[in-house]
C-alpha cells in the first residue's frame, strides 16, 4: 500500500497507512463488544468477567498505541516519545497502585 | 524513499518535531491527571450511599463508546487526506469527526442529567463526586477537542495545507487519540466494573 504522501514528515508519529488503521479499528470494535457482552450476557461469574474485561482493555490499549498513536522506535524522535511514555507509565503505576495499597492497608487496620 | 525523507526534513521539520515532542509531554502530564482521578475513584468506590449500578444504562455507554471509536477512525482518514493534500476531503472527515464527538458529549450530558434527576447527584456521596469528576473531566477534554476541530475546519481553506497545518493536525490527532485511550479505561473501570 503506497500512499502518495509517504514522504511527509511524521514527527515521530509513524507513517500513515489506511491498512493499519483498519486493522486497529476492527480489533478495537471486536474487543469493545467482547467486554460489553461479557458483562451484559450474565453468563460468567464475577471473577471471570473481571478477568475478561481487564484483559480486553489491556489488549485494546496496546492496539490503540501501536495502530493509532503509531509509537515506534524507528526514528530518534520515536525513541524519545517511547521513553517519556514509559516514564509516564511508571508514574501512573506508582500513583494508582500506591493509592490502592495504602488505602487498603488503612482499611485493614481500622477494622 | 530514504533520500526523499531526508530532503523533506529541512529545518522547518526539525522545529516542528521539537514542538510536537512538547505537545507529547503535555499529553503525558494529562495522563497523570487522569491517573490521579482514577485512583481517587477507585479509593472512594465503597458500598455506602447510592450505587452507580442502579442508575446505569449500559446500552447508552456502548453507543457512546462507538461514537468515540468511529470518530477516532474518521480523524485518521482526515490525516490520510491531509497527506494527499485534499483540503475539501480533510474538512469533510473533520466535520464527521466533529459530529460523532458532539453526539458523544450530547449522550453523556443527557446521561448525567438523567442520573441527577433520579437521585445520583454529585453531592450525595464521595463515590458520586469522584464519578462525576472523572467522567466529567474526560467529557470536558472532548468538548475542548470539538472546539479545536471547528477552528481547524475554518482555518484550513485560509492557511491551505502547509507545514503549520500539518503540525496542528498532528497535535489534534495525538489529543483525540489520547481521549479515546482514556475512554477505554473509563468504560472498563467505571461503567463495566460498576455494573457488576
Observed structural traits:
A: 111 residues, mainly alpha, 73% helix, 0% strand, flat, disordered N terminus, B: 196 residues, Four Helix Bundle (Hemerythrin (Met), subunit A), 6 helices
The mean pLDDT of chain A is 85
> If you average the pLDDT of chain B, what whole number results?
89
Q: Give the ordered list of helices and strands of chain A.
A: HHH
Class inferred from helices and paired strands of chain B: mainly alpha
Total domain units of chain B: 1
The CATH architecture category of chain B equals Up-down Bundle
- Write the CATH homologous superfamily of chain B: Cytochrome c oxidase, subunit III, four-helix bundle
For the record, give the distance between the C-alpha atoms at the N and C termini of chain B, rounded to a whole number: 52 Å
| Class computed from helices, strands and strand pairing of chain A | mainly alpha
Say what the CATH topology of chain B is. Four Helix Bundle (Hemerythrin (Met), subunit A)
- Gross morphology of chain A is flat
Assembly state here? heterodimer
Largest interface: A-B, 48 and 57 residues
- Report on the biggest sheet of chain A: none
β-sheet strand percentage of chain A: under 5%
Amino acid at each position: 500500500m503506497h500512499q502518495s504522501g509517504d514522504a511527509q514528515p511524521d514527527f515521530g508519529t509513524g507513517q500513515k497507512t489506511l491498512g493499519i488503521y483498519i486493522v486497529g479499528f476492527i480489533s478495537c470494535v471486536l474487543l469493545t463488544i467482547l467486554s460489553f457482552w461479557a458483562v451484559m450476557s450474565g453468563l460468567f461469574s464475577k471473577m471471570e468477567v473481571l478477568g475478561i474485561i481487564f484483559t480486553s482493555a489491556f489488549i485494546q490499549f496496546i492496539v490503540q498505541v501501536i495502530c493509532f498513536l503509531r509509537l515506534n522506535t524507528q526514528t530518534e524522535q520515536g525513541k524519545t516519545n517511547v521513553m517519556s511514555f514509559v516514564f509516564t507509565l511508571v508514574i501512573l503505576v506508582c500513583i494508582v497502585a500506591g493509592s490502592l495499597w495504602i488505602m487498603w492497608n488503612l482499611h485493614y487496620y481500622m477494622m | 524513499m530514504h533520500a526523499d525523507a531526508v530532503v523533506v526534513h529541512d529545518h522547518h521539520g526539525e522545529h516542528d518535531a521539537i514542538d510536537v515532542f512538547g505537545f507529547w509531554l503535555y499529553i503525558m502530564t494529562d495522563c497523570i491527571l487522569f491517573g490521579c482521578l482514577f485512583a481517587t475513584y477507585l479509593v472512594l468506590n465503597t458500598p455506602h450511599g447510592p450505587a452507580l449500578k442502579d442508575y446505569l444504562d449500559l446500552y447508552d455507554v456502548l453507543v457512546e463508546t462507538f461514537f468515540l471509536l468511529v470518530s477516532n477512525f474518521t480523524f485518521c482518514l482526515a490525516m490520510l487526506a491531509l497527506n494527499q493534500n485534499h483540503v475539501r476531503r480533510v474538512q469533510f472527515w473533520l466535520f464527521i469527526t466533529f459530529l460523532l464527538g458532539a453526539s458523544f458529549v450530547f449522550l453523556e450530558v443527557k446521561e448525567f442529567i438523567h442520573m441527577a434527576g433520579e437521585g445520583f447527584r454529585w453531592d450525595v456521596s464521595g463515590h458520586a463526586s469522584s464519578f462525576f469528576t472523572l467522567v466529567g473531566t474526560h467529557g470536558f477534554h472532548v468538548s475542548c477537542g470539538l472546539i479545536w476541530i471547528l477552528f481547524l475546519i475554518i482555518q484550513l481553506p485560509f492557511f491551505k495545507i502547509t507545514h503549520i497545518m500539518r503540525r496542528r493536525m498532528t497535535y489534534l490527532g495525538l489529543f483525540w487519540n489520547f481521549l479515546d485511550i482514556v475512554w477505554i479505561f473509563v468504560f472498563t473501570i467505571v461503567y463495566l466494573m460498576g455494573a457488576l
